[in-house]
Amino acid sequence: MASEPQPPVLPAEEYERRRSARDTDREGLAWRHLRLRRARNVLLGVVVVLAVLSDKEGLLGKLVVLGVPALLVEWVVRRRARVGLSWRRAEQAIAFYERRLACVTGAWAGTGESGVRYLNDRHPYAPDLDLFGAGCLFERLSTARTRPGEDALAAWLLAPAAPGEVSARQAAVAELRDRLDLREELAQLGAEVPDGADFSPFAEWGRGDPGLATPAIRGAIFAGAGAMLVGIATYAFAGTSPWPVLAALLVQGAVSLALRHRVAAVLAPVEDRAGALGPLAALLGRLEKEPFRAPRLIALRTTLMDDAGPASRKLAGLGRLLARAPWAHLLVARPLVALMVERWRRSAGLALGRWLAALGELEARCSLAAYSFEEPGDPFPEVVAEGPCFDAEGLGHPLLPRDRCVRNDVALGGELRLLAISGSNMSGKSTFLRAIGTNVVLALAGAPVRARRLRLSPLVVGATLRVQDSLQEGRSRFYAEVLRVRQLLDLSRGQPPLLFLLDELFQGTNSHDRRVGAEAVIRRLVQAGALGLVTTHDLALTEVAERLAPRAANVHFEDRFENGEMTFDYRMKPGIVQNTNGLALMRAVGIEL
After folding, report:
1. Are 59 and 19 in contact (CB under 8 A)?
2. CB atoms within 10 A of CB 393
3. How many C-beta neighbours within 10 Å does residue 359 have?
4. pTM for this one?
5. pLDDT at 5 over 50
6. In the chain, N or C terminus with fewer CB closer than 10 Å?
7. What is the pLDDT of residue 59?
8. What is the full DSSP assignment across 424-449?
9. From CA 115, how far away is CA 118, in angstroms rounded?
10. Whole-number Å distance between alpha carbons of 542 and 553
11. Sign for the pseudo-dihedral over CA of 70, 72, 78, 84
12. Does position 3 have pLDDT exceeding 50, yes or no?
């Protein structure tokens, strides 16, 4: 008998269920941790009492009397450490699900990583579409806990992928969408990686030339270490004077002094990151054991495995080597540790960059998978090779709460290349442009989109929605806008085709220059094969679309001013807006006209 279909999992309910379960786990672990602390204190007291009572016993008698309670103390201490780690991870899981609940309920702004370091004012669309910064798209999407993961996600948002790559990312995101256990564990393990740890110098170190590679240098290091061992052994077992030990220390010290710059070149770039290698190895180990079906995910896991062993084991081994460096420094044996680290670099250093890139891509895919899970009504778009085209039904802005997100249909492609949008301020023109641009960014990053349906070809977005002046560079807003338009004209001559989003073009100059300049720019963009939209509340600019018909059309957003209040429906309608509200709004606030 066929089983009955199961109701879909609601993200908020599933997150709340898991958060409550982890909270229960945390309370139990906290109680166990307290009990183990008390047991440790009692056992330590027992050891002290037995030590006093056995004071007159010989060494063997003391070992017999104190051995069992000492072993029990050691067991309790280790057990308490494991319980403490589970307790911390339960707290990290709670924080993870509270953050995810904030994303589902729309209260996520300011709770995650803003990615502001990726913001570039000269990028053709990143500042205009609110990709980075508090309350922006990167913060909404990112679940990455390492810098490679954040770098990979930012790179996907900043550059459109080809159709084949988008399809591969969609398949991976679809597979990862319901793997909450994986995302939870990645969040727990990633929380142990130091905040903001930049691993790019670590990868660069892995590609570096060996600094202790010559036979003469290796021979000097082994000679110094051998002399020291012989000296210590002679003193300890032959009962000779301490002079051989002192002589061995002098030899080893001379070797260390002579090689100090080479040793520093090997150890210095990685010693500061030694504490991050354990958590990083644990992250890679978690990914190595995850079963995948999507080809791109299988390829990423394969990157972490080779005949010499998994990446997690190799990184953990490097961490253990680096942990010896401070002690080796006290024994004047840092060259020997550096030689072992150098050997590790020769065997695995070139793979470091690949391991970090694989981890970053996995975290970026998990970020998009979390977004897909939390927005079950958002479908994957259809990305086609032929174009240019952009055809959407029920398109809305993905950063707006669903209950406030007004959706519109829009289609560009074939003969129609331009929509001129007229309407008053606050009527929704700029938000509509941002909705289009942001959904294109999501679509070509491999993510779901806020639409009932979206079909598009590869496009590169260019926008003038948030062009700013620059006091430091001595640029006015108008000049900055002219430079951006020049950039978009250059982009329109390349591939993929340009999707331009021009908001109130050239409003910083007089009406005549504005009209002539805007028409010339729009005409050149359309002739170059670009698609786009231009907004205006200057009705004279709507004539541009009429002169470019049928390659262009006029649409508008309207408002109503009734009983001293302005209202908007944010619905795009055909034709030129017929009513204006500027004078009515001035009168409403008490300006006599």
Report:
1. no
2. 14
3. 26
4. 0.88
5. no
6. N
7. 57
8. -TTSSHHHHHHHHHHHHHHHHHT---
9. 6
10. 9
11. negative
12. no
